[in-house]
Amino acid sequence: MQTKRSTYRHRWLPYLLLAPQLAITLVFFIWPASQAVKSSFERTDAFGFKTTFVGLSNYARVLADPGYLNALGRTAIFAVSVTVLSMGVALLLAVCVNRVIKSARFYTTLLVWPYAVAPVVAGVLWWFLFNPTIGLLPHLLDWFGINWNHRVSGTQAMILITIAAAWKQISYNFLFFLAGLQSVPHSLIEAAAIDGATPFKRFWTIVFPLLSPTTFFLMIININYVMFDTFGVIDATTAGGPGTATMTLVYKVYTDGVAGLNIGSSSAQSVILMGIVILLTFIQFRYVERRVNY
Fold first, then answer.
1. Endoplasmic reticulum: is it a keyword of this entry (predicted)?
2. Which of 90, 258, 288, 289 is the Cys-Cys partner for 173 at CB 3.0 to 4.6 Å?
3. Is residue 17 assigned to a domain?
């Protein structure tokens, strides 16, 4: 068996093709991350004119702050809620669309559109829907005896940002689940149906295990999304309030660094957040991947 290998006339052509992506990664990811690590060991004055090396003082102060520890627990609940909700709804929609033959492309197009919406726009959309004064949903909830006002209720505010963040991510998860469902061999499903397996049993024992690589991939993507990309949603809906009820780790980095002008503490929080994500990714590859059937 011969393996095909791409050859280039010019030795530097592959590097030139990679140069734009490498430059973007260096300028927008590697360089800011290195500056955050550097700033986490320093103390900067409010005007940014003078920096003093303080070692691990910023990390010790952050880890001893009860507000940061509360934000850490709040972020864990937020991450699990958004991941489970967005992946669960996306899988349900993918199963429904996969059963439709003639209109599958039409439904797929409709379900993909929300992914093109910017996080801030998604946050403003759900802020209007749940606005206690002009929103439609609070008036509907009044019929069921539910008094909705996320501006004074921390629990309702957390529910709001969870729904908004999950809605933004459902389209992304839906595309991958639909592709995974379409790759499942129909012969296995037909054989199970002939053996008398119910539709639910066929899905749980055949389809879902074959979707484990897709599910594993989406778990990692969704956790990274919640940790980093939900800032716009939170800022547009609750701005971390009421009080600190929706103050997640990524939003606390912004609050302390931009609003509070505490660059050292904000940088230390950024490094810790990056370390948490790396640790979670390692744990998933080290332990969760063992249950994945490729």
1. no
2. 90
3. no
- Give the pLDDT confidence of 92-127 residue by residue, as tens digits: 999 988 887 666 677 777 778 888 888 899 999 999
Please enumerate in sequence order all residues whose Cβ is within 8 A of that of 135, keeping only pairs 6 or more positions apart, or say none.
Answer: 128, 129
Hey, is 118 helix, strand or coil? Answer: coil
Does residue 43 lie within any of the structural domains? no
Tokens of 58: 């910023």
In the chain, the number of structural domains is: 1
* Ranges of the chain whose pLDDT falls below 50: 1
Query: Considering the domain boundaries, does residue 38 fall inside one?
Result: no
Spatial CA neighbour of 118 closest among 233, 227, 225: 233
Of all residues in the chain, the percent with pLDDT exceeding 70 is: 94
Kindly report, residue by residue over 21-41, the tens digit of the pLDDT.
999 999 988 998 898 899 999
**CATH code, 278:** 1.10.3720.10
3-state secondary structure of 52: strand
Q: What type of residue sits at position 259?
A: A
CB-based contact 230:82 (threshold 8 Å): yes
Closest CA to 217 of 248, 175, 259, 255: 175
Residues 208, 257: Cα–Cα separation, whole Å: 43
Identify the CA nearest to 118 among candidates 236, 222, 28, 218.
Answer: 236
**ω into 20 cis (within 30 of 0):** no
Name the nearest CA neighbour of 81 among 254, 251, 239, 248: 248
Which amino acid would we find at residue 205?
Answer: T
- Strand segments, DSSP code E, in 122-222 are none
Closest CA to 249 of 98, 44, 68, 113: 68
In a domain, residue 22? The reply is no
